[in-house]
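Practice problem 4.
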């Protein structure tokens, strides 16, 4: 499988090993109830999602990188279409970051897990043959 399919799986918040199981129980990014809940294991391939205690602290690094990319993108887009204006940048940036924050939180965890877990095209078959 290509890197592209890994990126699609991360963007869709799917298990990095099988690309089918959901990483989060609550799929609605704007519903608070159960927002942080992840299953302990992938429902399709049984990949462990809680690899070790505090595993997702590392997702702060991917969250930071994604947020910097969003900031840089907004800055470049605004400077392409408007004259430099720090007030406009701060207002647009704050709105975009607030709106994208729940998805950035979840996708940061997906990125962090995908960096540690390799894709396996036979992951589901292997799990089903064990069960
Ligand atoms: Zn899986």
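Answer key:
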């Amino acid at each position: 499988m290509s890197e592209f399919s890994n990126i699609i799986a991360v963007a869709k918040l799917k298990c990095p090993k099988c690309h089918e199981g959901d990483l989060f129980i609550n799929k609605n990014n704007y519903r608070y109830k159960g927002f942080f809940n992840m299953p302990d294991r992938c429902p399709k391939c049984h990949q462990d999602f809680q690899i070790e205690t505090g595993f997702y602290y590392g997702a702060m690094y991917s969250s930071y990188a994604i947020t910097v990319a969003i900031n840089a993108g907004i800055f470049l887009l605004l400077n392409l279409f408007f004259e430099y204006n720090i007030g406009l940048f701060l207002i647009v940036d704050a709105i975009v970051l607030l709106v994208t924050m729940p998805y950035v939180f979840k996708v940061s965890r997906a990125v962090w897990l995908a960096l540690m877990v390799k894709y396996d095209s036979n992951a589901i078959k292997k799990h089903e043959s064990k069960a």
